[in-house]
């Protein structure tokens, strides 16, 4: 009888332990779903922070199709930067080298030709942020505010795989960096430059001169920087080498 009671008691403990484990697991799953959803939607309702910037007087920005050139007319050197507003490595590039690039642009040594691409267009939820932001940046360039817009979108970059900023938030950022022309909002809402951007990306991504070996054969990736038609290896001191 004692043995029978011992078995019964052990079974009860097992049932309780299993029940507790199931409840804990359920709580973890629910908590994970809530955390993931919260993280995914972290941009909802957020105001993108307008950046004060470090671009000096005399820096001119000009849109040329789906690219934007920024710098002073007397600059002797030009680099091309290929990036995606959703690309985390592109943000790291900005954080690592932005101050050096700004300094050289401000002193009239360097011009930068920016190509904002929709490479990760399917990596936002819902898809489309890379294209929306690239289109908005070109519209900002028409208003002379590309650089401020560009810097703000990288500073407050959405999480890859999460919700990007919607068109209303992009329009608000434009207003906050000083764009007053109503054509800016219209350009964003209608996607006026989307086809140009997509056409440019198709051409760029298949350009043999922009291919790099990322360990699994040649391909195109962001960020890519070129100077004098050659891909630049992004290591410490690369800009000094370009400027020669």
Automatic annotation (TrEMBL):
Signal peptide: none annotated. It comes from Amycolatopsis azurea DSM 43854. Belongs to the thioredoxin family. DsbA subfamily. The chain crosses the membrane at residues 15-35. PANTHER family: DISULFIDE BOND FORMATION PROTEIN D, GLUTATHIONE S-TRANSFERASE KAPPA. Gene3D superfamilies: Glutaredoxin (3.40.30.10). Residues 67-233 form the Thioredoxin-like fold domain. InterPro entries: Thioredoxin-like_fold, Thioredoxin-like_sf. This is Thioredoxin-like fold domain-containing protein. Keywords: Disulfide bond, Membrane, Oxidoreductase, Redox-active center, Signal, Transmembrane, Transmembrane helix.
């Amino acid at each position: 009888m004692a043995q029978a009671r011992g078995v019964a008691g052990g079974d009860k403990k097992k049932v309780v332990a299993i029940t507790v484990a199931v409840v804990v697991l359920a709580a973890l799953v629910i908590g994970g779903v809530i955390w993931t959803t919260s993280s995914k939607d972290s941009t909802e309702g957020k105001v993108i922070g307008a950046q004060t910037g470090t671009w000096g007087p005399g820096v001119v920005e000009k849109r040329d199709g789906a690219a934007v050139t920024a710098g002073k007319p007397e600059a002797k050197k030009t680099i091309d930067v290929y990036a995606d507003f959703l690309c985390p490595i592109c943000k790291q590039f900005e954080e690592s080298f932005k101050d050096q690039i700004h300094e050289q642009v401000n002193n009239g040594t360097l011009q930068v030709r920016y190509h904002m691409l929709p490479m990760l267009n399917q990596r936002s939820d819902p898809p489309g942020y890379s294209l929306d932001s690239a289109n908005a940046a070109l519209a900002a360039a028409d208003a002379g505010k590309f650089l401020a817009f560009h810097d703000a979108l990288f500073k407050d970059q959405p999480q890859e795989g999460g919700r990007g900023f919607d068109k209303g938030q992009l329009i608000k950022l434009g207003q906050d960096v000083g764009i007053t022309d109503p054509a800016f909002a219209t350009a964003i809402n209608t996607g006026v430059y989307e086809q140009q951007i997509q056409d440019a990306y198709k051409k760029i991504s298949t350009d043999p001169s922009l291919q790099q070996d990322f360990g699994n054969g040649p391909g195109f990736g962001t960020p890519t920087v070129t100077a004098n038609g050659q891909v630049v290896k992004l290591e410490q001191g690369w800009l000094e080498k370009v400027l020669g």
